[in-house]
Model the fold of this input.
Amino acid sequence: MIPRHQTVLFIVLLAASAMMGGLLWNQLRRAHDRLLRGEDSAPTQAPLVAPAEQATLMVASDADNTVQPRILTLPLPQNPESRARAILGRLLDLYAAPESAHPVPGGASSIAQVFLLPVAGANKSEASTGAELAVVNLTGAFVAGHPSGLETESLTVLSICATLNANLPRVTEVRFLVDGQPRASLAGHADLMRTYLTNENTAPVEGGR
Done:
């Protein structure tokens, strides 16, 4: 017979898991609703009238499976979502360029939207700093053309998460959509159903938070 305290603990953990799942689903639904309303966060390229600022791109290299910072001066809009999209677009332009160290076709147009949402269930320290979840909506064409392989897919995900964190420190978590919908993987390997933490080497959160 199962002890009563173990039964109570199991029920509490089950309820907590259900609550966190509901919070995450609500966040993704809000982002999807914004897609349906046509709330585009920025043009594909940052407006030329935007002031030039330094941005840190965390660029992947297939040669040694690393992600290294590269500082560039870019015209960046002030709106955080527009800024995030412009910076990620420049990162993917580097990958689509000839002689890229991490060749991935698609370029800036592969970033359809970037949405920033409050982190669900943020603890006191996260709440005080305004911790945010970035929902990165990739295009289906980008995913279809991405090279398959655990290392190359992981480097793409890692570099996107690290670049967001380097330029928008409030972004502590990242989720991915493809054409506005959840997708199991990038190109068969990198898990796109998970939340990635930008301050813990983008390790996926257990339980799909």
Remarks:
- The mean pLDDT is 83.
- Residues 4-208 form one domain.
- Residues 113 and 139 are 9 Å apart (CA to CA).
- The chain has one domain: 4-208.
